[in-house]
Amino acid sequence: MTQVTDAPARSRAQIAAKTLRKDQWWRQPAVNATFLGIAVIYLTWASLVNNHYYAAPLISPLYSPCLATTCTAHAGFSWIPWVAGLTPAILIIWGPMGFRFTCYYYRKAYYRAFWQSPGACAVREPHAKYTGETRFPLILQNAHRYFFYVAIIFNLILTADAVFAFRNAGGGWGHMSLGTIVLIVNAGLLWLYSLSCHACRHVTGGRLKHFSKHPLRYKAWTFVSRLNAQHMQLAWISLGFVCFTDLYIRLVSAGVFHNPQFF
Amino acid sequence: MGNKVKLRVWRGDAGKGDLVDYEVESNEGEVVLDVLHRLQATQAGDLAVRWNCKAGKCGSCSMEINGRPRLGCMTRMSLFEPDETITVTPMRTFPVIRDLVTDVSFNFEKARQIPSFTPDPSIGLGEFRMQQVDVQRSQEFRKCIECFLCQNVCHVIRDHEENMPAYAGPRFLMRIAELEMHPADTADRREIAQDDFGLGMCNITKCCTEVCPENIHITDNALIPLKERVVSRKYDPLVWLGDKITRRVHQDTQKVPGKSSGHGAARSDSRAKPGRGRHQR
Question: Which of A39, A94, A233, B139 has the fewest other C-beta atoms within 10 Å?
Answer without folding.
Answer: B139
